[in-house]
Amino acid sequence: MNVDLSIYLVTDPELCGTRGVVETVRRAVAGGVRIVQLRDKTATDADIVEQLVELSHVIDGRALLLVNDRLDAALAARERGARVDGVHLGQGDVSVLHAREMLGPDAIIGLTANTPEHLEAVRALPAGTIDHLGVGVIRPTSTKPDHPPAMGIDGFRAFAAASPLPCVAIGGVGLDDVAALRAAGAAGVALVSALCAAEDPRAAAQVFRRRWRGETVPRILSIAGSDPSGGAGIQADLKSIAANGGYGMAVITALTAQNTQGVRAVHVPPTDFLRAQLDAISDDIEIDAVKIGMLAGTDVIRTVISWLEEVRPPVVVLDPVMVATSGDRLLDAEAEAALHDLLQYADVITPNLPELATLTGRDAIDDCADGIAVARELAERTGAAVLVKGGHLTGDEAPDALIEAGTDANTVHEFPGTRIDTTSTHGTGCSLSAALATRRARGDEWPQAVASARSWLRESLRAGADLDVGKGHGPVHHFAGLWERGGLQTRPTVQELTAEWWDATAQVRADIDALPFIRALADGTLRQELFLFYLAQDALYLREYARVLADAARLAPTSAEQAFWAQSAHGAIAGELELHVSWLTPAQGVTPDTFAAEPAPATTAYLHHLRAAAHSGSYPELIAAALPCFWLYTDLGQRLHAGEFGAYAQSAEHPYASWLATYADPAFEDATGQAIAYVAAAATTAAPATRARMRTAFEASARHERAFFAAPTGS
Question: How far is CA 284 from CA 277, 279, 438, in A?
Fold first, then answer.
């Protein structure tokens, strides 16, 4: 039996507090709990039966319902019409064989187990007696004061590896344990205080579910008709889902021949093919939310209802496509009756005003206040929230309102908005409902989901005319905001960017290799006065370069980067400068005389460039400007040390041997690698404009390096 045990709620009436078990379960199931175990040690069997009946109604098939220990209560609740899927038994409770016999082959039976002896007893049972084991405790917990010693993650891993059945980890499981337990072989995590005592059980369950999956992108299924012009139907839904941060999937209920001017023909595929599409998705992919749009006929609606009954997705947004823009009814009386049945499966219904009137038997709805009053009735009748859309109102204002069901007097959230003057309105209803489903699946409460979806849609409406699609009512521009804020440029990988930037310095590096200063330095023929000129300029450079690196440390976003640039600043002024002193002022050490030289034009230009980068306040640009001093020096030093410029550069008899050795210093090579990594990471995650400025600063510094090496000989 394929049972989703991933997020498993075990109830505790004391931890649920004044909110109560039923309301806690309702919220937790809405957040993604897949199995609920009613546990109440102090309640009578009669009380347990009543709770099971109520929980069955609240869960409404969206999660499995088990009861702890009370087999008789489970049977009694079933007789009352409650959906009780099974029991969880302890080692000292009723026989699992008896439970299987009484509950039947389709029931879910779990058993507590935590010792090798328990596993031996499980192996001795007939196949199919037990479906899963509750294994723990993982960590000490106050909810079971008589628990055995905590087994921890490693103990659970060993137990799960030896178990012939799926194991659910229970006992003190926290959010940080979820990924480790799944990696250790857990089929799920049983949560007590983490959900029962949570301020918001729905939000807490959602966080645990996302941590279990290890994913952040919700998967949204659109069940709707196809619009070949791309403005409405599943085409609009998929764009809306993507624009709002979801992964879109589509099951097609009808094929249309339409454009921005109207619908010319509709073809409805056989409903067995519709069901095949639905099953293909749900058999393979965990669905986080469903948006339902055009359902062309009774059989189509009934097929979708049947699928929803079985799958019970956690979020269902229904956009009841019933009335055309012309005012014509799109469904016959039988199909409208079936649609009323479908309303019971929705979490939110998003009718326009003509559709709201049709759903509630009104001739028309003339204003927002009337719409809210009618929506209250629909919310109370269906148990779903209702989003009243004001697009069909006359006047300059187009407000919307969300009526939440299940609250005292049905809470109303109003969303004012000035009408946007545009004819690009094709597919606005489809787009809004798909965005709403996506925002909810991403974790927003319904009011926030509506606010976010409306904000995005209004942005897309304002930009719709820019698309210039069709001669009629054009589509909204689903990605206008994303394109404007993020652009279309692909973000490079670190490896791609590093190679690209290094290739950009190829000519500079070739020019440096050919400089008389470098060639004479390598073969030992460089005159000492030229070498001392270079050292004096380099001392001036290092003093200011250390200050630039200190600025990088000040601006660094992480402590690791802060420490690296600070250490590099210290190395420039205390380490590298020490060798300069041995040539320039060996008797005095570091004194003002060390920096007494007049700055050469190349030195002044290079330092002005670095100071400008520092004064910009942009950490990415500053470290990009600082990088060539690391990278080009290390490259040159490695090749000098390897004999690429002649074997004499490797000789201890070379007049500048001590200096050449610093070029190939392993510590400096390591620091260069780290500097490259930090710059590349900053560049690949930066906005395109910032990345471009970083590269400009980097290439400018590389050219300044070439000029600096050329200055001693004037070449």
Answer: 11, 8, 20
Residue 149 has pLDDT above 60, yes or no: yes
Q: Which residues contact 649 (CB under 8 A, 6 or more apart)?
A: 522, 523, 524, 640, 641, 643, 660
Two tokens, residue 476: 């909204």
Task: Quote the mean pLDDT of the chain.
Answer: 91
Report the Cα–Cα distance between both ends of the chain, in Å, rounded: 81
Nearest Cα residue to 501 out of 671, 689, 644, 691: 691
Q: Which residues contact 618 (CB under 8 A, 6 or more apart)?
A: 555, 690, 693
Strand order in the sheet with 247-259: 262-267, 247-259, 219-226, 289-292, 316-318, 348-349, 385-388, 400-403, 412-415
Using alpha carbons, list the distances in angstroms from residue 342 to 318, 336, 347, 355, 383.
9, 10, 11, 15, 12
Planar angle of CA 9, 14, 19, nearest 5 degrees: 75
Summarize pLDDT for 248-258 with one digit per residue, the tens. 999 999 999 99
Catalytic center residues: 389, 425, 427-430
Round to whole Å and give the CA distance between 99 and 129. Answer: 9
Q: How far is CA 414 from CA 84, 316, 370, 401, 442, in A?
A: 39, 21, 14, 4, 22
Write out the DSSP string of 517-545: HHHHHHHT---HHHHHHHHHHHHHHHHHH
Q: Phi-psi region for residue 152, left (φ > 0), alpha (ψ -120 to 50) or beta? A: left
Amino acid present at 105: P
- The pLDDT assigned to 144 comes to 57
What digits encode the pLDDT tens for the residues 71-98?
A: 999 999 999 999 999 999 998 878 999 9
> Among candidates 1, 276, 314, which has minimal Cα distance to 127?
1
Look up residue 688 and give its two tokens.
Answer: 């395109």
C-alpha torsion angle, residues 451, 457, 458, 464 (rounded to 10): 180
A 10 A CB-CB count for 440 gives 27
| Rounded mean pLDDT, 28-45 | 93
User: Could you give phi then psi for residue 247, rounded to 5 degrees?
Assistant: -100, 115
Burial of residue 487 (number of CB atoms within 10 Å: 0-12, 13-18, 19+): exposed
Q: Is residue 407 over pLDDT 60?
A: no
Tokens of 401: 């309102």
Query: What angle, rounded to 10 degrees, do the helices at 666-685 and 619-641 form?
Result: 140
415 close to 447: Cβ distance less than 8 angstroms: no
Question: What 3-state class would DSSP assign to 44?
Answer: coil
Q: Which amino acid is at 653?
A: E
Q: How many residues does the chain have?
A: 715
Which two three-digit tokens encode residue 278? 């639905």
Return d(Cα 290, Cα 279) in angstroms, integer: 14
Q: Does residue 361 come out as left (phi exceeding 0), alpha (psi in the -120 to 50 range) or beta?
A: left
Nearest to 474 by CA among 225, 226, 229, 222: 229
Q: What is the mean pLDDT of residues 304-317?
A: 92
Chain-centroid distance, C-alpha 489? 21
